[in-house]
Design brief:
It is a single chain. The longest helix is centred in the middle third of the chain and has 14 residues. α3 packs across α4 and α3 packs across α9. The protein has ten helices and 15 strands. The chain has 334 residues and is α/β, with parallel strands linked by helices. It folds into two domains: 151 residues, Alpha-Beta Complex (Quinone Oxidoreductase, Chain A, domain 1); 151 residues, NAD(P)-binding Rossmann-like Domain (Rossmann fold, 3-Layer(aba) Sandwich), CATH 3.40.50. Bound molecules: NADP nicotinamide-adenine-dinucleotide phosphate. NADP nicotinamide-adenine-dinucleotide phosphate (NAP) binds next to α1, α3 and α4.
């Protein structure tokens, strides 16, 4: 391997409030040679995820936190450029926690080979973690039936835009919550949603009740906060709330108090509220990916990506995600 230089972003300090580029420093060092059992990955695409911000909290989430001075953690796809690992050869495409850097040197156990036949964007979006999160969360936990009403928050984002479309494919009436009139118009025009609610207008409880006049059977919660509160008051008996994420709180200095309806409405309406982490479903990844691919090929499912160019723009992309910049999956191409 050539003595390449690795550019990498380290976390300068834990943010309080909105994460910005000022919380990161870019550094450079030579790419180290792989040890036995390791491979060097040239990172091609990074996934920008709300969870990137949650990993900056000092307490662990479903993984260890990022500490000041650490290379910023990040999921990505890349190409093997040097290998001393069995089963990985130069030219293989892999995915894993490569971090915000040009080159990652990782043990084979932390890399998964991907057979990417179509676009790398699809492999990181609709046919990757994002699509699987939408699929397993909705199908296995939400268990929607045709004719039911599905409400989705962050509906124009990566997971939300796929959840909303799967809901339609399964015959649900689908209502999305998103920020701003343009996104709401896009949800109805491009994704064919039955209604869209702009949460920035306020009055969310009333807006949800009016858009979901038959009540909500499944609420897919990407945001927590006000949207969860509004959904709880509109749920039908035996409704299901899929807790996928809490992105309204990831930049909060201190967590907002819980929604008013918990636990009272859970009891009286016999609701089921269940969280999940998509990694727990990875042993059943293949059939789910096949289903998502079939829907894509049949034109029933559309994939949307917002691509930011250059590793140097990763911190800004993360900030912009929390300002509503992306439609569909947000990626940084290196
Ligand atoms: N459980 C799992 O295994 C799993 C896996 C992947 C992701 N997730 C979770 O799924 C959720 C969606 O993730 P994603 O990757 O699809 O991201 P995403 O929805 O693309 O996230 C960005 C979007 O969120 C909206 N947003 C930002 N700040 C907000 C706020 N304060 N309140 C309400 N909406 C806000 C913005 O859209 P607007 O313009 O509409 O505000 C923005 O475009 C996140 O909570 C994430 O942590 C969970």
């Amino acid at each position: 391997m050539r003595a390449n230089v690795n550019r990498y972003w380290v976390l300068r300090e834990r943010p309080t409030g909105l994460v910005t580029p000022a919380h990161f420093d870019m550094r450079e060092s030579p790419v180290r040679e792989p040890a036995d059992g390791e491979a060097v990955v040239r990172v091609r695409m990074l996934s920008i995820d709300p969870a990137n911000r949650a990993w900056m909290f000092p307490s662990p989430t479903y993984k260890a936190p990022v500490a000041p001075g650490d290379t910023m953690h990040g999921f990505g796809v890349g190409e093997i450029v040097a290998s001393r690992a069995q089963g990985l050869k130069v030219g293989d495409i892999v995915e894993g926690m490569v971090g915000w850097q040009d080159y990652a040197v990782l043990p084979v156990a932390e890399l998964a080979k991907r057979d990417i036949k179509g676009s790398i964007e699809h492999a990181m979006g609709v046919l990757g973690v994002t699509g699987l999160t939408a699929y397993f969360g909705l199908v296995e936990i939400g268990r929607p039936k045709a004719g039911e009403t599905l409400l989705v928050s962050a509906a124009a984002g990566a997971v939300g835009s796929i959840v909303a479309q799967i809901g339609r494919i399964l015959g649900c009436r689908v209502v999305g919550i998103a920020g701003g009139p343009d996104k709401c118009a896009w949800l109805q025009r491009e994704l064919g949603l039955d209604a869209a609610i702009d949460y920035r207008q306020g009055g969310l409880r009333k807006a949800v009740r009016s858009a979901c006049s038959n009540g909500v059977d499944v609420y897919f919660d990407n945001t927590g906060g006000e949207a969860l509160d509004a959904a709880l008051f509109a749920m039908n008996e035996r409704g299901r709330i899929v807790c996928c994420g809490n992105l309204s709180q990831y930049n909060a200095d201190r967590p907002a108090p819980g929604p008013v309806g918990v636990p009272g409405l859970l009891v009286t309406k016999r609701l089921r509220m269940e969280g999940f982490v998509v990694l727990d479903y990875f042993d059943r990844r293949e059939p789910a990916e096949r289903q998502l691919k079939a829907w894509l090929d049949e034109g029933k499912l559309k994939s949307f990506e917002t691509i930011v160019e250059g590793l140097e723009n990763a911190p800004r992309a993360l900030q912009q995600m929390f300002e509503g910049y992306n439609l569909g999956k947000l990626l940084v191409r290196l």
